[in-house]
Specification:
The protein is α+β, with helices and mostly antiparallel strands and 149 residues long. Helix content is 23%, strand content 46%. It contains three helices and seven strands; from the N terminus they run αβββαββαββ. The strands form two sheets. A four-stranded antiparallel β-sheet has the order 1-2-5-4. A three-stranded antiparallel β-sheet has the order 3-6-7, with no helix packed on it. The longest helix is centred in the N-terminal third of the chain and has 25 residues.
Length: 149
């Protein structure tokens, strides 16, 4: 093989390899989903209306948000749900606010009978986010709130 053919071939292979490596690096910069601005609250039921437990958060991922699962639990119970257990709890309702970001809200109605069975004191909200690309983020204590009578 002549040098005139060999040198351009080697340069072409090196350039192709660099482009492929750069493309791989760009493709592997996916970010994990994030949960920000999480807040939770509890409103006790009255004689006239039901109470509610609510949670809202801004959830983001570069591929978009597929689902957000939420569970509230009393700190006194030492329940401490795991990521695997979160796959079986309620889903929050999410609406897109911008490209890759959603505002997610979860509301649970609480009757007077339900409220009588709730443990007083601090409660935690655990969240499992699943992005469109399958990435997940588990936040064991995304928010706290107090249950009072």
């Amino acid at each position: 093989m002549s040098k005139r053919v060999l040198v351009p071939s080697v340069i072409g292979l090196v350039t192709l390899g660099a482009l492929a490596a750069g493309g791989y690096a760009m493709a592997s910069t996916d970010t994990e989903p994030t949960v920000e601005n999480g807040s939770a609250g509890y409103v006790a039921p009255s004689r006239k209306s039901e109470g509610k437990l609510s949670f809202t958060a801004d959830v983001s991922d570069d591929s978009g948000v597929r689902e957000v699962r939420v569970v509230a639990w009393p700190a006194s119970s030492e329940l401490d749900p795991t990521e695997a257990e979160m796959r079986y709890v309620d889903k929050a309702e999410c609406r897109d606010t911008s490209d890759g970001t959603s505002r997610c809200a979860y509301t649970l109605k609480v009757t007077r009978q339900d409220a009588a069975d709730l443990a007083e004191g601090a409660w935690y909200v655990s969240v499992l986010v699943t992005a469109e690309d399958g990435d997940t983020t588990f936040v064991p204590r995304a928010a706290t709130f107090d249950v009072t009578r």
